[in-house]
Structures are given as C-alpha cells and as structure tokens.
Amino acid sequence: MRERLVAMLEPVLAGMGYELVHVELVGGGRDTVLRVYIDAPDGITLADCETVSHQISGLLDVEDPVPGSYQLEVSSPGLDRPLARAGDFERFAGHRVRVKLVAAVDGRRNYTGELLGHVDGQVSLVVDGERHSLALDDIESARLVPEGQGPGRRRQDR
C-alpha cells in the first residue's frame, strides 16, 4: 500500500514544488493515521502543510487507497528526517544516521554511525570505526541523528 500511496502522491507534490520524503500508515481501525512528510528547498511552513493537506485530501478521497477511515497528517520531516529511498542515502552521506533492520544481521539489528552512501542496493556506514554494508531492502527504518544526539541520548523538550 505504501508504494501505491507514493506513486499517487509523488507526482502531485512534485508539481506543487514539494518533495515527498516519506509516507507511513500507522495504527488501525478508527485510530489509523496516514502521515505524509514533505520538504522543499527553503524548508516547510505550517501554510505549506495546510496547502498540501488540502490538495491531497481531494485526491485521496477520489482514489480511496486506504480502506476505512483515517486521519491525514502532513508535516516536515524534522531534524531526524527519515531516509527511505536510495537517493536519500546518497544525499545525506557524511551525516550521522540511526538504522534499524527488519531482522538482525550477525546478531545486530540497530546501527548508529556515519553514513557513507548507497551503491547497488547496499547502504554503507561506519559504526565505532567499523564499516558495515546493509542491504537497502533489509532496512526497516533509517533516520538522521540531529547534531548533538548520539546513541542513547534523547532530545530535550523545549
């Protein structure tokens, strides 16, 4: 379903001048939430989120890709931007990332380190001085680590 949503939303958002960063469908039943993360070269404002929400609400109503009822949320990717596509792993090479795998590889499922990039379906990163190569298809989630946020540290509430 995620692929269908991306295929449906990406061209519309690109035509509006926005990048579709990530789509996630969470919860279930009456608590289902469709989250759409967008970005633009100059960043995202509340007005951008409102504009995109209004535009894609109509499309989603017509196409009806999500069974049942759901709540639509449109937001910026934030400082801990999700990385989902091969291009994301190339674009953010040199940044710290937190990666979680679908299943453990060599007994390890979580990695936090410097992203080296993506080549031929493999994401490379350095964790504690050791280079790791992870299959893009094996990654459950990946996010940038905001500056000053290392493993085990939590963001301070403001």
Gross morphology? globular
Q: Please report the number of helical segments.
A: 3
Helix content: 10-25%
Helix-strand pattern: HEEHEHEEEEE
Placed side by side, the strands forming the largest sheet appear as 7-6-5-4-8
Tell me what you see in this structure.
It is a single chain. With about 160 residues, the protein is of the alpha+beta class. It has two domains: about 70 residues, RimP-like superfamily, N-terminal (GMP Synthetase, Chain A, domain 3, 2-Layer Sandwich), CATH 3.30.300; about 60 residues, SH3 type barrels (Roll). It is about 25% helix and about 40% strand. It is built from three helices and eight strands. The strands form two sheets. The chain has a five-stranded antiparallel β-sheet with strand order 7-6-5-4-8. A three-stranded mixed β-sheet has the order 1-2-3. A hairpin with a 2-residue loop joins strand 6 and strand 7. The relative contact order is 0.13.
